[in-house]
């Protein structure tokens, strides 16, 4: 346990002799969300807090700042999938909030300025604005931000390196060690919750153990025990996103292999400790590489078709996502692509932008009139945007053998790398920015109750988020270059789209409808994060609060009666917890991806983007301060009487 901040002292209410009792605020979770919230707390405290003494406790088994995901204790080979210049904890003039703007350096600026010596001492190199730095660099940045925030707080700050296991109805917070903290306000900022295995995953694990096989279910790759994956043995991997990239790194470079480059070709030199990875997924292709360039003027802009006003015009109440909302999303992305193409690269078009835009305004991207317009106005297929083809590049394709599949897949990856590095295809950047803008509108629609729970789970949190991640949240380009090098070295093989896995007598058997034959292995890895389900959360605190009724979450059921699992923890518009009986807990606040109303506010905000996380943090921080000030006034009146 560590303590920082000014020494505790009693404050006197101005112009009286009334003693105001100190206030205690407990934050459960010490990761970036708590850091950002406390930064906003410190910013508005001079305006709202008055002279109240405040004690802040931060409870987390991992050091405050980075928390679990951004802890220092992880492989330095694991990278961020964001550029250093795209990550900040600090507000800027773009942020629309009631609290004061307090600027601070983004990750790139910090690494080349205030953080340079700190990084050198940690044995880390600095990062340029366009670099994808190691996660350990982000850990150092967040640790520095935490220290700066603590210094700015008008409060004592105590950290507890352990878990909270219970919170009572009177805000008594019980820690794993048995220590108890009586709080006036409690904030749960728990981040992504681990969950118990599903029935299917538990069955896989039991059957695999009985057959002497290795099964690794969904989870955070950095936390997974990979020792059961043996050198040179085949491993079936289902999942081709960030979790796979981390797995790939930890089973190759982390086992002693290395790369060198000659004439622009990357070559991998095996250590002999690597397994052979047969990777497939629903799409059968890796996530698109992150864009390797910026273009002036191509920043996120307000949506044109998918707007709150447009949704209101569709009628009151719940909207059907597939028939009413999804067409507007498709139209939004199509508009962004072609607007950038026509305006930045007119030599590759045959019409004026105004003429083309008029067709899109009155049709949908799949309408025959618009398809005909694209064929006439955009001669090169490489310049056309067909969302279905972007989403599933291997759909309806069949390959004679695995060699034919691999040839096509290598070509797709090589083309992606070239295109994502070339500003001549800046329409891709425009689509990326449009995706961010669409997410902001969807978050408003969700919190306003315009989408059913089934549509939210099936179509937004699963399908739409999957598409967003595939297009906009892929790996650094270097990682796909390494993937190709590993393929040339025989370490990674491609298994195809719509990959299914079954358990045979003594082997896992994987197959894809796109390619004949099957793959057999004694190890199988689900390279993905577990699907969120708060009702299946393994965290004892969440389980206990749900059981006691202090927290509530729906068990979601689809229209056909099938279970969708647990919904998010319920919170009102002020982020206060909603209890099982429907009443609002006035002093228990919830923040994070497992909480209703947090859509779009998770993750790190980009500078000058008015990130929703900033806006939510500011509103909650000011609400906390207002409650503390009210309690201060009540205490003063009580002592006066």
UniProtKB/TrEMBL annotation:
Residues 26-192 form the FAD-dependent urate hydroxylase HpyO/Asp monooxygenase CreE-like FAD/NAD(P)-binding domain. Pfam families: NAD_binding_9. This is FAD-NAD(P)-binding protein. It comes from Kribbella orskensis. The lineage of its organism: Bacteria, Bacillati, Actinomycetota, Actinomycetes, Propionibacteriales.
């Amino acid at each position: 346990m560590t303590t920082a901040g000014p020494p505790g002292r009693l404050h006197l209410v101005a112009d009286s002799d009334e003693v105001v009792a100190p206030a205690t605020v407990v934050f459960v979770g010490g990761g970036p969300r708590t850091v950002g919230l406390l930064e906003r707390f410190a910013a508005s405290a001079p305006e709202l807090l008055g002279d109240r003494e405040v004690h802040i406790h931060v409870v987390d088994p991992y050091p405050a700042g980075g928390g679990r995901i951004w802890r220092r204790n992880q492989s330095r080979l694991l990278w961020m999938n964001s550029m250093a210049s795209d990550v900040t904890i600090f507000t800027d003039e773009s942020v629309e909030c009631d609290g004061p703007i307090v600027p601070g350096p983004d990750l790139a600026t910090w690494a080349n300025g205030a953080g340079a010596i700190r990084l050198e001492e940690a044995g880390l190199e600095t990062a340029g604005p366009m670099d994808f730095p190691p996660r350990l660099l982000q850990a150092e940045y967040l640790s520095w931000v935490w220290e700066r925030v603590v210094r700015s707080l008008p409060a004592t700050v105590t950290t507890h390196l352990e878990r909270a296991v219970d919170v009572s109805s009177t805000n008594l917070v019980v820690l794993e060690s048995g220590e108890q903290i009586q709080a006036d306000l409690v904030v749960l900022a728990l981040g992504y919750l681990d969950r118990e295995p599903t029935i299917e995953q538990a069955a896989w694990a039991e059957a695999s153990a009985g057959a002497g096989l290795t099964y690794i279910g969904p989870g955070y790759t950095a936390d997974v025990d990979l020792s059961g994956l043996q050198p040179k043995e085949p491993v079936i991997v289902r999942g081709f996103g960030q979790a796979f990239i981390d797995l790939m790194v930890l089973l190759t470079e982390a086992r002693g292999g290395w790369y060198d480059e000659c004439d622009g070709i990357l070559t991998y030199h095996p250590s002999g400790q690597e397994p052979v990875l047969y990777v497939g997924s629903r799409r059968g292709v890796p996530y698109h590489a992150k864009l390797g360039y910026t273009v002036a003027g191509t920043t996120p802009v307000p949506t044109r078709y998918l707007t709150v006003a447009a949704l209101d015009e569709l009628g009151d109440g719940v909207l059907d996502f597939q028939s009413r909302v999804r067409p507007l999303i498709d139209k939004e992305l199509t508009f962004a692509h072609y607007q950038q193409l026509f305006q930045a690269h007119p030599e590759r078009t045959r019409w004026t932008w105004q003429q083309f835009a008029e067709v899109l305004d009155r049709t949908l991207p799949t309408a025959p009139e618009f398809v005909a317009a694209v064929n006439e106005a955009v001669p090169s297929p490489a310049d056309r945007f067909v969302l279905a083809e972007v989403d599933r590049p291997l759909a309806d394709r069949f390959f004679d053998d695995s060699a034919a599949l691999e040839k096509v897949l290598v070509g797709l990856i090589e083309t992606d790398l070239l295109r994502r590095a070339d500003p001549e295809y800046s329409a891709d950047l425009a689509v990326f920015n449009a995706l961010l803008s669409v997410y902001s509108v969807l978050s408003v629609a969700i919190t306003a109750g315009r989408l059913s729970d089934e549509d939210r789970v099936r179509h937004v949190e699963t399908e739409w988020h999957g598409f967003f991640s595939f297009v906009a949240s892929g790996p650094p380009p270097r990682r796909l270059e390494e993937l190709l090098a590993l393929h040339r070295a025989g370490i990674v093989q491609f298994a195809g789209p719509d990959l299914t896995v079954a358990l045979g007598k003594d082997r896992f058997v994987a197959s894809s409808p796109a390619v004949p034959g099957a793959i057999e292995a004694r190890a199988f890895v689900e390279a993905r994060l577990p699907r969120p389900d708060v009702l299946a959360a393994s965290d004892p605190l969440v389980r206990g609060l749900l059981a006691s009724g202090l927290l509530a979450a729906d068990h979601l059921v689809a229209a056909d009666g099938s279970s969708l699992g647990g919904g998010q923890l319920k919170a009102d518009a002020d982020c206060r917890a909603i209890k099982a009986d429907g009443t609002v807990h006035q002093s228990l606040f919830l923040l994070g991806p497992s909480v209703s109303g947090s859509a779009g506010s998770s993750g790190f905000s980009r500078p000058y983007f008015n990130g929703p996380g900033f806006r939510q943090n500011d509103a909650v921080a000011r609400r906390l301060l207002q409650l503390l000030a009210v309690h201060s006034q009540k205490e003063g009146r009580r002592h006066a009487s």
